[in-house]
Amino acid sequence: MVYEFIIVGFSNFPQHLLPAFFLLFLLMYLFTLLGNLLIMATVRSEHSLHTPMYLFLCALSISEILYTLAITPRLLADLLSTRRTIAFVACASQMFFSFTFGFTHSFLLTVMGYDRYVAISHPLWYNVLMSTRTCAHLVSLSWAGGSVMGMMVTLIVFQLTFCGSNEIHHFGCHALSLLKLACGKETSSVTLGVILVCVTVLMGCLFLIILSYVFIVAAILRIPSAEGRHKTFSTCVSHLTVVIVHYSFASVIYLKPKGPHSMDSNTLMATTYTVFTPFLSPIIFSLRNKELKNAIKKTFQRKFNPLSS
After folding, report:
1. Strand-strand pairing, 167-168 and 4-7
2. How far is CA 13 from CA 21, 239, 265, 266, 267, in A?
3. Number of other residues whose CB lies within 10 A of the CB of residue 294
4. Residues near 22 by Cβ (< 8 Å), separated by ≥ 6?
5. Which helix (H) or strand (E) holds 85?
6. Angle CA(131)–CA(200)–CA(197) in degrees, nearest 5?
7. pLDDT per position as a tens digit, 114-159
8. Are 142 and 107 in contact (CB under 8 A)?
9. Are 213 and 264 in contact (CB under 8 A)?
10. Which of 40, 153, 216, 242 has the fewest CB atoms within 10 Å around its CB?
């Protein structure tokens, strides 16, 4: 029975570069926290942003903050440590929270796609279909779905017996890396089951998002003026960009062919993806969403130059 695991994902990296990685990831980590907190504070303070789209954006920011808190502090500590061990219970907890907040993030992106579909395709029914109660239910279902997925995958993995090596060739308690340490006849079937469940859910979310945008594009093309089409589509750009970034990075990491040095490169890419994707989201939403960008500017002016307002 294994009571603790050893994280060896960084062991083969050039050790002189680890402090540079630490500094880079630390800056990204802090910016992710501050950027998402700024979005939440701006939405809370600006009455014009009290709409379903920004309610979902706040929920997305919360999921990104919690996802980052579940993984990055431990990652930063391991970058500067010489012995990288993690207790069995702590490993299970990290897996549960990372899967919970990761899947919640995907569910919320799907809900945001549906929100844009309703706003553009059925504008007269928008306030009815996307009432405060409906929005609260959609956010609650996203969090409940993420929690169920996190609990299910964690229980499936940790009900196995770990009787071999206790070295995890990853930067944290990654499900597939842990499954390689399990022993027993059912390990291969459990591994296949975990992969199928995760891929099915994530591809299902992506399919629903694509379907939403098919209807959105069809509705936009029916708008007679080019200016109207551009203005309408601009409300979707930030969400669409985050979806593309989220799924593109994940596809490159998890679907690329494995080479002779894939273990080290996978660890580096997965680490970068884990820190970099949440780092990009507040930047994209702040820069690509004109309404939110103007609200942030207004908030800063009120705070630091009250006479100008």
Report:
1. parallel
2. 11, 35, 10, 12, 10
3. 12
4. 76, 79, 80
5. strand 85-87
6. 110
7. 999 999 999 999 999 999 899 999 999 999 999 999 999 999 999 8
8. yes
9. no
10. 40
The SS3 call for residue 224 is coil
Q: How many residues does the chain have?
A: 309
38: amino acid identity, one letter: L
Q: 178, exposed or middle or buried, with CB in 10 Å at 0-12, 13-18, 19+?
A: buried
In 222-308, alpha helices (H): 226-234, 237-255, 262-288, 290-304
170: left (phi over 0), alpha (psi -120 to 50) or beta: beta
Q: Under a CB-based contact definition with an 8 Å cutoff, are residues 256 and 9 in contact?
A: no
Of residues 228, 295, 245, 281, the one with CA closest to residue 51: 295
Tens digit of pLDDT for each residue in 75-112? Answer: 898 888 877 888 889 999 999 999 999 999 999 999 99
Q: What is the pTM of this model?
A: 0.90
Alpha-carbon radius of gyration of the chain? 21
15: burial class by Cβ within 10 Å (0-12, 13-18, 19+)?
exposed
Contact 286, 33 (CB under 8 A): no
Could you tell me the two tokens for 204? 């299902």
Taking the C-alpha atoms of residue 69 and residue 36, their distance in angstroms, rounded to an integer, is 13
Determine the distance from the C-alpha atom of residue 16 to the mean position of all C-alpha atoms in its chain, rounded to a whole number: 30
Which amino acid, one-letter code, is at 18?
L
Name the token pair of 184: 């027993």
DSSP state string for 24-57 = HHHHHHHHHHHHHHHHHHHHHH-GGG-SHHHHHH
- Integer Cα distance of 73 and 66 in angstroms: 11
Distances (CA, A) of 276 to 112, 132, 250: 21, 32, 12
